[in-house]
Amino acid sequence: MTEFRLPALGVFALTAATLLPFAASAQDMPPDPGPGMPEMLPRHAPAGTALTLSGTGTVHAAPDRLTATLFAEASAASAAAAQERVNALAGMAIDAAKAAGGITTVTEDYSAEHNEGGKAPAWTARQTVRLTGADGAALLALVGQLQAKGLALSGLDWSLSPDRRQSLTRQAEAGALTDVRQRAEAAAKVLGLKIASIRSITLSDHGMPRPMPMMMMARAASAPVAPGAPAEEQDVSASASATFMLTP
């Protein structure tokens, strides 16, 4: 006697037909984000309207570091004699800065040149000494003393120390983020939408503020007189760019 198993095939066909639509719809769904993660929208669901804006933030602050650029110069009949005098002047400046405390020193641009054209003395030596400190009044007083002892002052520059600049940059960045957020909220209100999320944010600062140069001072030959160097406020700026997603 022959047996027929068509009902079993029918059950299989029905099961496959039932599962296929489910499998197809599952492809359009994102993976399970896992516990504690926000639920993700389907891949093909509308994400809303993208709005990209930029904002700026600026902080004004007085500089906290003064740099004095001095140079020692001497002329003599021989290179050795000229260099000996310059070395003595530069060494005196470094020793005085160490004794004062709180001042960093940098020596640079050492040169010894022969004077052309038969001019006497025949050799001129020169070296630059930079003194930097947070106490502007103390540094200026020291500069006056060094001028009286034979060094010349070529420049005074106020600037922001790295720590101070970093702190001000963070404040400027916060201002830039606040600015771009307020602009986005205002735009969304005009459009009759609301901010649903932020797709991306980019932050950047506008570089190191330039030092504030003071007028060059001449070499002093009499009693020490501290040069003047008023500290003017400097600007630290940052910008922010963000893309907001708006929904009804």
Give the gist of this structure.
The protein is built from 4 helices and 8 strands.
Structural account:
With 248 residues, the chain is of the alpha+beta class. Among the domains are: 48-64 and 160-207 and 235-247; 67-159, Alpha-Beta Plaits (2-Layer Sandwich). It contains four helices and eight strands; from the N terminus they run H-E-E-H-E-E-H-E-H-E-E-E. The protein has a five-stranded antiparallel β-sheet. Strands 1-8-6 form a three-stranded antiparallel β-sheet, with helices on one face. The chain starts with 5 loop residues before the first helix and ends with a strand. Keywords: Signal. Residues 225-248 are annotated as: Disordered.
Helix content: 25-40%
Number of β-strand runs: 8
Q: Identify low-pLDDT runs.
A: 1-29, 37-42, 215-223
Order of SSEs: HEEHEEHEHEEE
The radius of gyration over CA amounts to 36 Å
The largest sheet has its strands arranged as 3-4-2-5-7
In round numbers, the mean pLDDT is: 81
What's the CATH class of the domain at 67-159, please?
Alpha Beta
Structural class: alpha+beta
The termini sit apart by 70 Å
How many distinct helices?
4
Q: Mind summarizing the main beta sheet?
A: 5 strands, antiparallel
